[in-house]
Amino acid sequence: MGHTNKRLNYIDVAKGILILTVIISHAPTELAQYMYWFHMPAFFFISGLLYKNNFDFKTQFTKFFLPYMAFSFVDILLCFLTSPETLSLSNFISYFSKHLYSGKATGGVFWFIPVLFFTKLIFDFLKKNFNNFFIILIGVISYLMAHRYSINNIPEHIVDITLDNYKLWDFDVIFMSLPYYIIGYYAKPIISFVESKITLFLSILGVLIFTYLNWEMEFYYYLNMKFSYYKEPVLDLVVPLLFIILILSLSYRITLWGKYKNLSYIGKNSLVIMYLHNPIGSFFVQRYFVGPVSFLIIGLTSSLIINKYLIDKSDLLKFITKGISPSKKSSREVQLSSLKY
């Protein structure tokens, strides 16, 4: 296995770990707040890390929004299966309208898709038209604007967020996602430092110390990208990056141990899992009152079964649910070509 293949593998593993934390964050558990600290910033960081200078609007739009629409219908269907008494044309129109509006109006992580798409689009425009200094400056300004907006407009408790805080496709979150994406891109030449044992040790130590402070010392920290909640300009940079370094470093070690194929497979199919785990898990929670571990197992395994034995068996379903055309390069091939650093 070449050095580039190893790097792609541990990034797949990292995505696998991250999507597991996304599932946990939607389970009935108090651990959710700790997952919010890093998992969504990490996905934007990794996307920036994998950026390749060949962004094609039509191809990317299809890849992002065709699955978005397909899984929106699946999500609505599962909502009606969970609560059959709510089945009506007016409710279908209401649910579908919320999916079109997306962002804070839609349950789960549907908000992530339009935010990631437009983050990539904006970064691609910047990369093709401006120098590195200007792009980094834009990232800094965007980060500060995101915090100014959150501090001035988002309530101290997300339960107090109202319709006035809802923005089409969560466009306000792009001010925060763009800096994470930019950091990921410019980390590419130095990302090999996560392969060091000392990096793993220090990142574990840092994560344990900060988690202990938050858990035992009543040093409360909260970050939630979907709800535009980021009110600590220093910690909102330090904490996600600390966890990202830990996850990448741990993922690299896992690939060295050779026990990574399952996590790698999960990572490669993280978007399908992202779409399916929450409505399926919620169905079982409402009917059988499952706990967080059961939610994780059910949400993950059911998504993987549907992916492996239904979606991946049909080119049409792969196109509809993953935006993958049989005539196009696989996303893995594209990632391989982008990781030659």
Automatic annotation (TrEMBL):
Keyword vocabulary terms for this entry: Membrane, Transmembrane, Transmembrane helix
Q: Which residues form the Acyltransferase domain?
A: 9-306
GO molecular function annotations of the record: acyltransferase activity, transferring groups other than amino-acyl groups
Positions of transmembrane segments: 12-28, 34-52, 64-83, 103-123, 130-146, 166-186, 198-215, 235-254, 266-285, 291-311
Name of the molecule in the record: Fucose 4-O-acetylase
